[in-house]
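Handout, tutorial session.
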Amino acid sequence: MSCANHRLHTGRCLCIHSSLQFIDLAIQSLLLNHGLLPCPLSLMPESPPPGLVKTLNGIEKVRNVLRSIFRSKYRRSIREVVICVGPNPHRVNHAYKVPISICDADDSHDENCGSPCSELSDVEKRRINRQLFLVLF
């Protein structure tokens, strides 16, 4: 991932599934960094404060759209995801580009990923979150 000319390393080749998880972690880190969320989504209470409901609904819509795109038959066409942060979609204050390069193992097909591919482990997620924190703060 590139963020203001910073490179984050996952330590392995990412498949389409782990790339989506990587994007999700980046979005959550950026939302926290820019003060749009008071805490990580995983720590959000069951009934969030009323002023946060609209924001959380918007975040969930974005996550669902990304999930559907990354699972579509066009997933191999994805080259980059740009995360824009601003007061509204027409006034972007910050744009973060995340290049997507899908691992192409010999046994990888359009229907499924190859054998070295897997979702991010908890250890990998923590490492990525730590790198995002250091880059963004």
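The second record follows below. Compare its token runs with those of the first.
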Amino acid sequence: SRRNAVKGKTRAFETSSAMEGVVRVLSRLSHLGQELQATGLSEDGVTTALSSYMSDNLLETPPYWVASAGEALWARLQEAGAGLPHISRALAAIITHSSHDHAVGAVELCFGLLAVDKCPTRGIFDRVLCSSYLGWLRGVQSSGPTAKKRAGRKGKKAAALDTDEDEAMDVDQEHPSPLASSLAGFAGSLRTLGLADQPDVVQDAASTCVDLICKGGASDPQEVSAAYGVLLSLLQPIHGNPRDLCAMVFRHLASGLAAMGGGGGKVARAEVCHQLIAFASSALGQSPSAATESVAALARAVVLRAADRADARTAAVELAMGLLGLLGPAEGEAFVVFTARLSRTPKVSQRMMAVDLAPALLAAAGEPFQTSAAALAAAAATPGAGAGPLVAAPPGAICLAILAQRCGDRAAPVRARALGTLAAALSAASSFNGGSSREESLFLRALSLAHEVRLQRQDEVVGRTPGGALPSPCFVSPAGAGEPGGTPLTGAGAPTMGRTPRPGPTPAPRASCHFTMPASWAGAGGADPGAAGLGWLLRTARRRAGDERGAVRRGAVALLEALLVLRASAARPLAPGPADLAALDAALGDALVSVRRAALGALCALLPVAPEAAAPLWARAGLPLAADPEASVADAALG
């Protein structure tokens, strides 16, 4: 009991000492704020006033002293005559005009005060202090801490603690950097400090945090996580209209996509993808109705802003699919329509992106060949839809149509990519969606009609939407200016933060679209054609096997192989025709090694399922390749 009493007295003494130390520092800051108010905030006046106060290490107060002071601190400050507005003015001046070390100390003290129980947040963190803090964050972003400085800090910490590097990393996790701590404190303050009447501050905070995330100012994982925490706090209704806030924050993120993970390789891109998806998931959990449109818009921005490189397209597809996985079926179908329109733009890079997206969308859909009620309604509302035997095309059929129709693209890279991707999809048809025979039948029926899927337009009147937001109907391409097939936004401009859009005139009708296909898709045309209905695609493959570009010929041979094997393995086998064998014969003698190797693989795959047709070609053109000057081709022939 005596020992406990001693410990209690010690704790009381430490608490009293902490309280007195904090009150003393804050009283000095209050006097500094009064002096600054008297001299004004001119550069010379601030510098002169700060010099006399900062020379005696005014801010060297252990941060835990502030936290341990408790809610009694506010009564003690009032007794000491220290005014919170004056303290706030002094902290803002130190952050803006003092050295880096003093500014860091002021930031830590500021958010230490905000974390104290029953803190009058608005009395301390006013507009001036908030602007000073955001300016400090921008300075951190522009300077960007180098790896050398970080390594130096880590080395000093490890040496001081007499630990190895791994233990030093553990210490870093337990004691986050001043930037991470301040961002976490800022996010906490934003949960109670409403900024609906200060939309410019909200915009500034969002753009600053996005710059920290995208441009390397916050390179530590804890700092990036804390910056995302600030963005999430900004989406609360106390800061304005949630839909407008989501549109603003996600638009800033979309603008910074190009800089995120730049030069960091696959690991950095994967981390960026994970962080963005996690943030989008949190935003949807916090404001599902407000964030849905913005997350869908970010998925579109991801694919539109991707660089024209294979690795960038792959990363964009992964990120877009991750974002779509957070949304519902309606948004997924809208993205399929958007991808189909993307495949028809003048830009080669966008058509290539559509070809990369199509198989991912097909694989991700739960019921890709199930037509939604919205699609049926859109097809029924199309003028003249009842005049011909047309039905609404399901998402899976649209994805296959994208690939099939890009096989004849003007650009050789797009043709080659579409042919190869379609060949891979066809080869996997037997295992599609769990290997169900019904799903395989639907897949083949949709592919047999893919060349007849058509874009249909209709006019509809859509109400006014806030500027910067995106329309949400499933069959409206929700695209902003510059997006392919985009419909211009009514009332476009700066977001109306925290206020309701003013009523305006009735907007003009704008185009909507959906896709239709022949009624035989729904079974109205008789028996299921199965593999026999792919004759048009077989003709396309034969024609492209003679293309002038080697990559196109290689893709065409792969598609030819998949088609011939599928037809020969069907319930009613169809043997390769003379034209098919002639195309393979020509490919076996192609000047390019990759084409000869692909043709040899196709012939070897065809031998077990159609030996009568393939054996003569093997003896005439396949076996002689055992003497091919290229070792890989000769080994394949002998193997």
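Points raised in discussion: The two ends are 87 Å apart (CA to CA).
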